[in-house]
Amino acid sequence: MPTQIVFRAGNSNVVAIPKNLSRELGFKSGLNVVVSKIPGEDAIVIRKATKAAKVKEKTIDREFKNWLDNVLQEDKEILDELAVR
After folding, report:
1. Contact (Cβ atoms closer than 8 angstroms) between residue 33 and residue 44
2. Based on CB atoms within 10 Å of each CB, which residue in 13, 22, 26, 81 is the most buried?
3. What residues contact residue 2 under an 8 Å CB cut-off, 6+ apart?
4. pLDDT, tens digit, 9 for 90 and up, residues 2-24
5. DSSP E strands, 20-61
6. Nearest 10 degrees: Cα torsion 30, 33, 20, 2
7. What is the largest CA-CA distance in the chain?
8. What per-residue confidence (pLDDT) applies to 60?
9. Are residues 65 and 83 in the same domain?
10. Whether pLDDT at 85 is above 90
């Protein structure tokens, strides 16, 4: 099994996925993946992100937007006063 080199990209460490594995797994550039550690081992697992994970993110974003809209609406007078100062 060939070895890979870990290199830096910004604040992250990066490892290239060999072409044959990428093809076999259907990994393409831009694909969302989940990286997790196997408990008790020095190993990681890389999986395709599921649609459920994407839906959860959208739900959280929607919940946050609704919360922010409510705060802005409820505290409009206070925020307007602070903006003037």
Report:
1. no
2. 22
3. 18
4. 799 999 999 999 999 999 999 99
5. 33-37, 44-48
6. 120
7. 66
8. 72
9. yes
10. no
